Amino acid sequence: MIIVKGGCAVTPEGTIQADVAVEGARICRIAPDIEPGAGDEVLDAHGCWVFPGFIDAHTHLQCWTGIDWTADSFETGTRAAACGGTTTVVDYATADRGVTLPDALAEWHRRADGTCTANYGFHMAISEWNERNAHDLDVMVEAGVCSFKTYLAYDHLRLDDAETLEVLEAMAPHASVLCVHCENGTLVNALQRRMLERGITGPEGHALSRPADVEAEAIGRVLHLAHLAGDAPVNIVHLSTELGLEEIRAARGRGQRNIYVETCPQYLLLDESRYREASDDGLAGAKYVMSPPLRTPRDAAALRAALLTGEIDTIATDHCSFNLHGQKDRGRDDFTRIPNGGAGIEHRPALIATALGDELGPECLARLMSENPARVFGMWPRKGALAEGADADICVWDPSVSWTISAATQHQAVDHTPYEGFACRGRARFTLVNGVVAARDGEPTGEMPGTYVPRSR
Ligand code: URP
Ligand code: ZN
Ligand code: ZN
């Protein structure tokens, strides 16, 4: 048995001073002063919060994105995740056009199985809508995939409105949730051309061609489509703007149900001034080329307030890492050629605990980064809960550790981090995945206990 001793356990019923005993891959007991027996391993949690392992429900590992492969594999990405306290990721398997959903799922298993430090599940991104894919939704649900994604931007991925409506309707019988990338792709294409015609070729053109209205219009449209489909469950991923939040408020105000909302650390902590960051190699701004782009401080403040009011359900990373040198630098003279995406799988708990921990408190941190993702994506209460009988995915969080994020010391397999120099308060002292210590003091132990998480809603 492993006994996590002396910490403050963040349970669904509240935060209590208690020890947590782990037998095999399950939590078997939570109680004050559990006496270790002979042969038991004791993990010292004095001064620590004992969280249910954090869940990152938005990653793109080992993925062809139409322009390049993401830099992190399942092996490096889930190892980095565990170092930061994340015990489960839900990655976007993507069925490119001409590929069936079962073939895409099999390919994602081939990439991930046997290599993961943290647990992993898969959403399925659908890039074309036809009878075969409609039929295969059931096959996906049988295989433990209860969430899908469609895009309203990116020409090689996006569906039109009628197709999006049909996807929402087809998912209704099994209550799957549709995650939607909300940007108006037609507008993005037109505004990109406009920027290039004006001679704006640097990374600032990325933000200028994807203004807040581009996101908000798409959010409003998707919410209307979901309403038309009988209040079908939708998850608005990577919400970045106050204007988009207003669309969500309006739909909820009309009584629409089954709307879930995700945001990411980059939209809470960084802002659009980063596109003007200077560096010797002239590449600094490219670090922040992700979609949606970074926004204004006012947007960030609105999202932070919405976390407190419960209007945002989950914080994920949208981890989609590309190296600056050899990948993002191909867009040096044309921002439209910079692969979109940023890194964050390792640092999300530390970033959020540092920037928002005092305001949110441990229970809210657990809700946003563990409990709610588990509930929305069909893993609760096996995951996302520090409870007897739950999987022994645990993050022992030491709030007293001060450290600084740096690409030089990170475990993400990418040559930079958008958070270089960020001073963190707090770090994962132990990360347990399925009852195995996978990371200690932010360093991997070398164990690879991560397993596939079949999910159902
Ligand atoms: O820039 C981003 N976010 N790339 C990843 C794909 C997506 O849109 O989620
Ligand atoms: Zn997206
Ligand atoms: Zn994404």
What would a concise description of this structure say?
The protein is α/β, with parallel strands linked by helices. It is 31% helix and 23% strand. β8, α1 (74-84) and β9 form a beta-alpha-beta unit.
What does it look like?
By secondary structure, this protein is an alpha/beta fold. It has two domains: 2-51 and 380-444, Urease, subunit C, domain 1; 54-363, TIM Barrel (Alpha-Beta Barrel), CATH 3.20.20.140. The protein contains eleven helices and 19 strands. It has helices spanning 74-84, 101-112, 131-142, 161-171, 185-197, 204-208, 212-228, 242-253, 265-269, 297-309, 348-376; strands at 2-5, 8-11, 14-17, 19-23, 26-31, 41-44, 49-52, 54-59, 86-95, 119-126, 147-151, 177-181, 234-236, 259-263, 314-315, 394-404, 423-433, 436-440, 443-444. It has an eight-stranded parallel beta sheet. The radius of gyration is 21 Å and the shape is globular. The model has no long low-confidence stretch (mean pLDDT 98). It binds N-(aminocarbonyl)-beta-alanine (URP) and zinc ion (2 copies). Residues 58, 60, 318, 320 line the site of one zinc ion (ZN).
- In spatial order, strands of the major sheet run 8-9-10-11-12-13-14-15
- Report the mean per-residue pLDDT as an integer: 98
- Describe the main β-sheet briefly: 8 strands, parallel
Bound heterogens, unique = N-(aminocarbonyl)-beta-alanine, zinc ion
Cα separation of the termini: 32 Å
Could you state the oligomeric state of the chains shown?
Answer: single chain
CATH topology of the largest domain: TIM Barrel
**Radius of gyration over C-alpha positions, nearest whole angstrom:** 21 Å
CATH level 1 class label of the largest domain: Alpha Beta
| Tally of strands | 19
Q: What are the low-pLDDT stretches, counting only 5+ consecutive residues below 50?
A: none
